[in-house]
Each structure stands twice: as structure tokens, then as C-alpha cells.
Amino acid sequence: IIIRNPAVLERIDACRTVVLDKTGTLTYGEPSLSDTILAPGRDKNGVLGLAASLEQYSKHPLARAILRAAREAGLTLNPVSESSERPGEGLRGQVSGHTVWITGRTKLGDRGISLPPAETGLECVVFIDDEYAGLFRFQDAPRKDSPQFIEHLQPQHHVSRVLIVSGDREQEVRHLANQ
């Protein structure tokens, strides 16, 4: 916790509502790949390998999780001949002769693709050669001490309401709140 004005500590007992940032405060801020749902006939290492090869050039927070999962699986990254990451469109590129597109569920429009139902957590959809290949789901684990800290607020400081602020999807934030 960073306190810029120590005088605020004298007024903390009057606070009944606490607002906490989610990512990096209540969680570690390091999402990890928690689930891979593949299209029929697709190989997990094949889809993960192509996606990780493309993600090695991305600055997106989920890119690190995909790269970490590929490294843990012992996969070798392939060269990328071109890539593009336009805001709101996802990541596209050419990897080993395949067109790879990694994007969010909401960016698909009306493509007639039957995706698994949305669940809690972050996710991205992977297309290989313009065909749905799989869906990656991610979780950002809560910090070990977050539940104890929040439980401490009510009896010790009479806090009656805790709010979580986040730029993540509502489902992801609710999942953390329930934990």
C-alpha cells in the first residue's frame, strides 16, 4: 500500500467503504493459461505453438501467459513472417505458412461459429487459416493474503463495504469477489 499523505491515516477509522484495485492489488497481475478448449481435430500443442509463436511479439498481458504455457510444454517457437496488432481487432500474423488470428469473443461478429459458453475469467479465441482452432481461458490468481486482509477490515476497522475496481470483464471481477 502506498500512502502519499500520512494524515489520511488519522481519518481511516471514519471510513466505512474501501475501494481496491483488482489487478496487482488483490491478484498477482499475472494471468495464467487455465484451460484450452480445442475445435474437433485440433492438437493442443499445435494450436498453442502457433499462438505462442505469434504472441512473442505482442505486448498484451495474455501474451505472457500463452508464452509461459508453451515454454512449460517444451514447445519451440516458429518464425513469424508478418504480424499486425490493430487496436480492437486482435493479433494476426503468418506463422510457418499458416495465418493465425488471436482475438476476443466479442470481436467475431456474426461468423456462425459455435463457441463454448462464456465462463468466468479472461479468454481469447484462436483461428488458424481462417478456421476456429480453439479457445484459451486464463485466470489471475488472488494474492494469498487478499482474503485475510478483506476479512480483517470489518472487525478491526468497521468497514461495511468493499468495492473492486477493474478494467477486466465483469465475470472475471465477480469470480474474484466470490473467492
Helix content: 25-40%
The average pLDDT value, as a whole number, equals 89
Could you tell me the strand content as a percent range? 25-35%
Parts with pLDDT < 50 across at least 5 consecutive residues? none
What is the number of helices?
5
Order of helices and strands: EHEHHEEEEEHEH
End-to-end distance, in Å? 21 Å
Total beta strand runs: 8
Structural class: alpha+beta
Most strands sheet: 6 strands, antiparallel
Shape: elongated
User: If strands are numbered along the chain, what order do they take across the biggest sheet?
Assistant: 2-7-6-5-4-3
What Rg do the Cα atoms give?
20 Å
Describe this structure in words.
The chain is α+β, with helices and mostly antiparallel strands. The protein is built from five helices and eight strands. The chain has helices spanning 22-26, 44-55, 61-72, 146-157, 170-178; strands at residues 17-21, 32-38, 80-86, 90-95, 98-103, 122-128, 131-139, 161-165. The strands form two sheets. A six-stranded antiparallel beta sheet has the order 2-7-6-5-4-3, with helices on one face. A two-stranded parallel ribbon has the order 1-8. The chain is elongated, with a radius of gyration of 20 Å.
